[in-house]
Amino acid sequence: MNFDIAIVGGGIIGVTAGRWLAERGLKVCVVERGKLASGTSAANFSWVNASQKTTDAKYHHLNALGVRLYAELGDEFGYEALGLRQSGSITVAAGTTGIAALQGQAARLAALGYPHRLLDPAELQELEPHMAFAADTSGLLAPSDMILDAARFVGAMAARIRALGGEVVEDCPALELLSDDDGQVSGLKTSEGEIATARVLIAAGPDTPDVLAALTGFDGFATRFPVVRVPGLLVTTPPVSPGLVRHLLVRDTPDEFHVFPDFNGGLRLGSDDADARITEDSSVNEQRDAARLLLARMQALAPGFAGEACLDDCHIRIGVRAVPQDGISIAGPLPGAEGVFVIATHSGVTLAPALASLMAEVIADGVVPDMLKPFTLDRLPGFGG
Ligand SMILES: Cc1cc2nc3c(=O)[nH]c(=O)nc-3n(C[C@H](O)[C@H](O)[C@H](O)COP(=O)(O)OP(=O)(O)OC[C@H]3O[C@@H](n4cnc5c(N)ncnc54)[C@H](O)[C@@H]3O)c2cc1C
Q1: What is the pTM of this model?
Q2: How far apart are the CA of 373 and the centre of ligand 1, in A?
Q3: Domain range holding 188?
Q4: Are 236 and 310 within one domain?
Q5: Are 96 and 210 members of one domain?
Q6: What is the Cα–Cα distance from 77 to 54, expressed in whole angstroms?
Q7: Both 154 and 204 in a single domain?
Q8: Closest residue CA from atom 3 of ligand 1
């Protein structure tokens, strides 16, 4: 069958890009080797934000575009239908150093034009009444930040692709890129047959290097494509009393730790040091040990929470980030391969609509918009950089 574009990967990046391209009138086919949103899009912290991305202005603005486009999508499709919640986020800190860090972050957000408000201890306590904050704890509220049930969002975007005449096929691994004598892509071989198309977008998340190697037959992609896999631990508790935690909360000191009210009525917890304790192959016991740490921290912050006592009822998962070598996104044409495009990024929950809208211009119009230029692959060694 003929399509204008085939997309490899049914995670949030591939399916959102497919929706944007289908809205532009392209006939889209997304192929997913397993079930939709079963990769990293099923195991992440769900935080749609630009509030934490302040060191690189271009990367901040890309994330801020993602946040703005979610608000537009929420108005178009309905927030509930997308699994999108306007929760806002609050970063909390105590002590002179911690509060100075919050003020520094607020100054950077002001310079970047991202909505935020410093909260004094009384305001913070009013917004999160069940937390036992230390007396001098202050907060930084980012009201535009949201949380997203990525699986529900992917389902809604896939439905839209189908409604626009495209296809989204599960249990259909892509096997090989087909090209003509001039090296131009002519199709994609999958387990279910061949798709005739002159354009292929690879959106395979942390598997991007291996998928590129398998599809092109060039093993060098597996070893040299500049994306590394970084695992993280996610703990989802059973339901807690409603309103126990009201916003997405990040505590930087004394130990970094983050939590939000999850879609099941429980809490989802994570922290940088719990991530550092695990690998992709960590045993169940190792994962439970790291989860204990998170549950204990949560109980210290919210004495009404059951803590370790609910460990056996928690859902503990490891998600794997695709982190490009220089920490920012990769999105654009694959240099030297006519008709092949790649998106590989961390923060893909936030960035999916931004990268999808900008990549639609690259793929449909053949123009790399200025906003995307810092993120194309040709900046990196081995690809022209
Ligand atoms: C612990 C953790 C916390 C995170 N927290 C956040 C957060 O709070 N906010 C945020 O913005 N981001 C967060 N992220 C990052 C975010 O989850 C990812 O950037 C995003 O989900 C990536 O989506 P993706 O579509 O690129 O990848 P994936 O969801 O992994 O999708 C890729 C898909 O490609 C498929 N595939 C692979 N090979 C083939 C093939 N040969 N043929 C067909 N299909 C194939 C896979 O099965 C998979 O479904 C977090 C990640 C982790 C691990």
Answers
A1: 0.98
A2: 22
A3: 5-44+150-226+325-379
A4: yes
A5: no
A6: 30
A7: yes
A8: 44
Pair of tokens at residue 4 = 């204008």
Question: Residue with structure tokens 């305001």?
Answer: 123
Q: Evaluate whether residue 65 is within a structural domain.
A: no
Atom of ligand 1 nearest to the CA of 207: 37
Ligand 1 contact via 258 beta carbon (within 6 Å): no
Pair (233, 134) in one structural domain: yes
Tokens standing for 74? 């929420």
Look at residue 11 and tell me whether its pLDDT is greater than 90: yes
Query: Considering its fold, how many domains does the chain have in total?
Result: 2
Radius of gyration of the chain (CA): 21
One domain, residues 247 and 300: yes
- Check if 353 has its Cβ closer than 6 Å to any atom of ligand 1: no
Which residue of 19, 41, 59, 248 sits with most ligand 1 atoms within 8 Å of its CB, as the best mutation to test the pocket? 41
Instruction: Give the model confidence (pLDDT) of 221-264 as tens digits.
Output: 999 999 999 999 999 999 999 999 999 999 987 788 999 999 99
Residue 333 placed within a domain = yes
